[in-house]
Amino acid sequence: MSVSLSKGQKVSLTKRDGGSLTRVRMGLGWDAVKKKGLFGGMRNQSIDLDASALLFDTQGNLVDQVWFQQLRSKDGSVQHTGDNLTGAGEGDDESIRVDLTAVSPGVATLVFTVNSFTGQDFSQIENAFCRLIDETNEAEIARFDLSGSGRHNAQIMAKVTRDGAGWSMTALGVPATGRTFRDLLPAMAGVL
Questions:
Q1: In what order do the strands lie in the sheet with 78-80?
Q2: What is the tens place of the pLDDT at every residue in 55-90?
């Protein structure tokens, strides 16, 4: 059963049987709002949203990043499945897989972000979401709606944090500005 998260809500990543999740996937999906064409018809536009995963240590230092220019973390525990340049298609347009058992012990928090590389803001995007999936059985654990239109072109979506022997996820939904994750780093200080 999936939990629909609201901004700031936290969910434990412990399975119903008491075990911990081992492999999760953060999925990002979106559609571009159709624009009026020359003679009143509607036309599609392409919007290139990019999902990124940033790995931080306990002091809040960035130790690794996974994004369209680096598809795998140095330790191999986090992998981006590829860059979707348009948002076309059904379901997850971009995904980042995480093997929680293989994440370096020095990593305390993974922060997931989304930004518009092409610069359009979220008022031009609809049906946007991020979701966390248990990769062992493809069950959706949590979903966070990102569609709230606004003039921002990026969002700090969620964070996954070590929580004792397991992990927990917190929906963030912090509006930001930037074309890549590097532009978002100053805004992340407040969410770590």
A1: 3-5, 139-145, 125-134, 23-32, 94-99, 78-80
A2: 999 999 999 999 999 999 999 999 998 765 555 566
Give the residue carrying structure tokens 């919007």: 47
Q: What angle do CA 109, 79, 191 make, to 5 degrees?
A: 25
Cα radius of gyration rounded to whole Å, the chain: 16
Q: Domains, the chain, ranges and CATH?
A: 3-187 (2.60.60.30)
| Residues 120 and 47: beta-carbon distance below 8 Å | yes
pTM of the model: 0.83
pLDDT tens for 91-143 read: 677 899 999 999 999 999 999 998 888 777 777 787 878 888 888 888 888 77
- The single-letter code of the amino acid at 17 is D
CB-based contact 56:63 (threshold 8 Å):
yes
